[in-house]
Hints:
Blueprint: E1 4-9, E2 12-17, H1 28-42, E3 49-54, H2 75-82, H3 84-91, E4 97-101, E5 104-106, H4 108-114, E6 118-122, E7 126-128, H5 142-150, H6 152-161, E8 165-166, H7 167-172, E9 178-180, H8 185-197, H9 201-214, H10 219-233, H11 237-247
Parallel strand pairs: 2-3, 3-4, 4-6, 5-7, 6-9
Antiparallel strand pairs: 1-2, 7-8
Helix pairs in contact: 1-3, 5-6, 9-10
Amino acid sequence: xxxxxxxxxxxxxxxxxxxxxxxxxxxxxxxxxxxxxxxxxxxxxxxxxxxxxxxxxxxxxxxxxxxxxxxxxxxxxxxxxxxxxxxxxxxxxxxxxxxxxxxxxxxxxxxxxxxxxxxxxxxxxxxxxxxxxxxxxxxxxxxxxxxxxxxxxxxxxxxxxxxxxxxxxxxxxxxxxxxxxxxxxxxxxxxxxxxxxxxxxxxxxxxxxxxxxxxxxxxxxxxxxxxxxxxxxxxxxxxxxxxxxxxxxxxxxxxxx
Length: 257
């Protein structure tokens, strides 16, 4: 069915953008379904990591221009109403998110891929900004995310020239963790998510939050924030288990609490 397909593999929830006829182009309905699916999946405490991918030949081809009228006459208000909740849900998700990019991630689809925590790419995958080709600027968080992932000069190169970035080059530049054969993409993404799902979930997500906050903080402020976060986590079940396992020279069995 159209929207976002939800499946699971043990402690890993798998969300699949499921509008392949348009290469999963963004619409208010699709992004609303994604925000809802993230909420549905993470409401289950047994879910400890998520995988996001796309059905068919592409991950996400960007904005569906046929659906742009649904945003209303005030485009900024429309995007914040219909699109921001999905991006916010990804950035603030209570579990780590692995993004498995199959085929093209273009425009806003590129932005969506970067909103996760770790990206895996199929060999057929490509990333392209496209905006300056049509006289626009990158949006949906690209100008914040992309320079932080690959650096200012490379981000500008992609944004100004609109040249596709291959999966292999994306890995060289640090955008993508791993490139795998197309047929193995979902399997490898789930394996990676299972590794994350076995970790201390609260600490993993707190680490993500610290990294994001560090972009706006001084060294001294971040130094203190790390210790304050550490103090909050010290009595968590996973922190206690981690310390006990270290002393007992065994592998920790984290519960996500």
